[in-house]
Amino acid sequence: MIQWYQSVLSEQSILHTCSISELGFVRVSVQAGLQNDVASSRIALTKLKDSSKISFTLLSDDLGADRLPTYVKVPNKITDGHLLELARHHGAKLATLDTGILGALLIPAS
User: Which residue has the higher pLDDT, 35 or 4?
Assistant: First the structure.
């Protein structure tokens, strides 16, 4: 993952987030004990984005369920499919650690 991040740095890329990914960061950071509460997690996310050498932009999300990829057949693939289609809609590429998202850019964990 560090190598991927360093390669993105050298390309002067922009990282995009959306409401789902930002809310997920807030939820997981509190649930995992990395932050004490939601307010602290929101501050941590802001600091992370502000201190990054890569610019962050927030993608608007106006896609409904009718835009889910056809491979989405079960509930646990809905968010993955939505994020993939949101990235495509904005001309971006979904980068993930999840090996199960067809069409996404897999970030190596090591």
Answer: 35
